[in-house]
Design brief:
By secondary structure, the protein is an alpha+beta fold. The protein has 5 helices and 5 strands, in the order ββαβββαααα. Helix 2 packs across helix 5. The longest helix is centred in the last third of the chain and has 15 residues.
Length: 149
């Protein structure tokens, strides 16, 4: 039996310990905000937080999150400064990657309150946007950093 906390709620899982966290979140917990992209931890669409750190849920087996606190996009406070900046700057186009982008950006700003362009580019490099909104993503992160400061 695997015990974990998801968005502040205690959960148990007695299925396959090798099951990716992504599929637990989407199919078992019903939290569909976390997206499936590549299934190989390369695109970042499945980004969630494990104990406050950004991870790729598609490549994280359930056995590795035993005792952990998992936060998904649904667990982020409504209108977090990153989400607010995303809307004000009009970051999304198709929007598919945005939950992973937002989760990665929140983790970045937790560890770096005033990131440079290079800091942002480095931290966000594992999150792909097929629409190419990278300049708006960077601008939104800078704006959110000001709102958090």
């Amino acid at each position: 039996m695997i015990r974990l906390k998801v968005n502040g709620q205690e959960k148990t899982f007695d299925g396959d310990p090798g099951m990716p966290l992504l599929w637990y979140l989407r199919d078992v917990a019903g939290l569909t905000g976390t997206k499936f992209g590549c299934g190989m931890t390369l695109c970042g669409a499945c980004t969630v937080h494990q104990n406050g750190e950004a991870i790729r849920s598609c490549g994280t087996p359930m056995k590795e999150v035993a005792g952990a606190e998992i936060t998904t996009i649904e667990g982020i406070a409504p209108l977090h400064p990153v989400q607010k900046a995303w809307m004000e700057i009009k970051v999304p186009q198709c929007g598919y990657c945005q939950t992973g982008q937002i989760m990665q950006a929140i983790a970045l700003l937790k560890s770096n309150k005033a990131p440079s362009d290079q800091d942002i580019d480095t931290a966000m490099s594992g999150n792909l946007c097929r629409c190419g909104t990278y300049s708006r993503i960077r601008a939104a992160i800078h704006q959110a950093a000001k709102g958090i400061a």
